[in-house]
Amino acid sequence: MDFSESPDHRVFRESVREFCKRYVEPVWIEIDESGVIDPDLVRRMAENGIYALTLSEEYSGQGGTFTEAAIAGEELAYHAPALSLAVLFIIQSSWPYVFQLYGSDEARSEVLPEVARGRAAIGIASTEAHGGSDVSDVRLLAVREGDEWVVTGEKSMVSLPGVIESLPWGGGWFTIARTGDPRAKHNTITDFLVLMKRKGVRDGSISFRPWTEIGRKGLDTSVVTFNGTRVPDAFRIGDVNGGFRIAMEGFNLARSMIGAITVGSARWMLDAGREWIKQRVVFGKPIASYQAISFRFADLAKELEAARLLCYKAAWVADKYYVERDGSVDLGDVALYGAMSKLKCAALAVEIGHEVMKWFGGAAYYKETPIVRAWLGALSYVLGAEGTENMMRLIIARRLIGREYV
Ligand SMILES: Cc1cc2nc3c(=O)[nH]c(=O)nc-3n(C[C@H](O)[C@H](O)[C@H](O)COP(=O)(O)OP(=O)(O)OC[C@H]3O[C@@H](n4cnc5c(N)ncnc54)[C@H](O)[C@@H]3O)c2cc1C
């Protein structure tokens, strides 16, 4: 067992840090304030290997591992702790990767090089208002007409429409639709890549109703209505009615990296808290000298170290399965560690943010003290994004106790 980073990983982390100090740190508050990510920054991220990092070189990608994605995600989140850029990065390192595994040759060669170059983004359109956490309760309908599918219905929380609109090529969503009798639940679900800037899509067949988000504001989220949107069969992902299992792979991979980005943001919050308690003098002494504060700091630092180990284990398990094709690890392990890591790290980031804000006292209530921006970013993953806490518990319990009991 070796807990040190390999020389390659150290160099990679350092290069991401340098990039972040130059291009990310100076703009993160502006992104959180304006809700806009500059497409030039996305292009620059891609040029520096910090965008769709896991896409293969065949599609102009980096061919990077999930461990590298965790390293880059942690650093991006440390330097832009409101998380918009880090979330964009992990979405592009998970959903396009699954599309690469299961998409048609034609669709992959059209879309993936654009994603790899930072000219496009692919999001996930899964959640529906009535179904929520029950991803199998899909009502978005896809009906085949010749070489096309006609998609009709609504997804209730879909991130990235504004980002996709702003990028030169665009992009779209890994979209989960019903393609048969709904009573068959998981077994009549098919995935499609629905592109936003494709001809016929923007002329009224997709419309957006944006939510007003409280955090990670660079990533917009909308209700998306598909009104007879035409999708070529070449943009079906995997087999007809085989979409549920494939979509779960995307969620598992995203969750395998969410731990790392929430740890990055938590690390920034705790560092900011440490510097504050050392210099804030009340009753004649720095507040770090009161054990009510320094002991809380110690507990959170200990928890953060434990969470960090878990998030890198999740990435390591994903690498074992997808990169090394190591037979000792299966898809259930990827799901298990992704769920454990997301559950642990996101909750801890929120706890750390909450505690650090108390150390700042009243000043924390004003956005001039930016801890609240980081706290709200991590909160998205506690409340629901990529699955609620109870859904993570369900995955863990099913794997470790058995599906027949849970
Ligand atoms: C910032 C943000 C971005 C998002 N982006 C996207 C996106 O890009 N694409 C997308 O498809 N979705 C997106 N979502 C939606 C997200 O996937 C959902 O919020 C999530 O799946 C939960 O669904 P819900 O919000 O309807 O909660 P519900 O399913 O209604 O859950 C409400 C509560 O009930 C609990 N609960 C439900 N069922 C059970 C059960 N069986 N046992 C125990 N507890 C249960 C849940 O844990 C939760 O606490 C986003 C959400 C957020 C907050």
Outline:
With 406 residues, the chain is α+β, with helices and mostly antiparallel strands. It contains 13 helices and ten strands.
Overall description:
It is a single chain. The strands form three sheets. The protein has a four-stranded mixed beta sheet. Helix 9 (243-279) runs parallel beside helix 11 (331-360) and helix 9 packs antiparallel against helix 12 (371-383). Helix content is 51%, strand content 15%. It has three domains: 7-102, Acyl-CoA dehydrogenase/oxidase, N-terminal domain (Butyryl-Coa Dehydrogenase, subunit A, domain 1); 122-241, Butyryl-CoA Dehydrogenase, subunit A, domain 2, CATH 2.40.110; 244-400, Butyryl-CoA Dehydrogenase, subunit A, domain 3, CATH 1.20.140. The protein has 13 helices and ten strands. With 406 residues, it is of the alpha+beta class. It has helices at 7-24, 28-34, 39-47, 66-79, 84-92, 95-102, 105-116, 161-166, 243-279, 291-323, 331-360, 371-383, 389-400, and strands at residues 120-125, 141-145, 148-159, 170-178, 189-195, 206-210, 221-232, 236-237, 281-282, 285-286. Bound molecules: flavin-adenine dinucleotide. Flavin-adenine dinucleotide (FAD) binds next to strand 1, strand 3, helix 12 and helix 13.
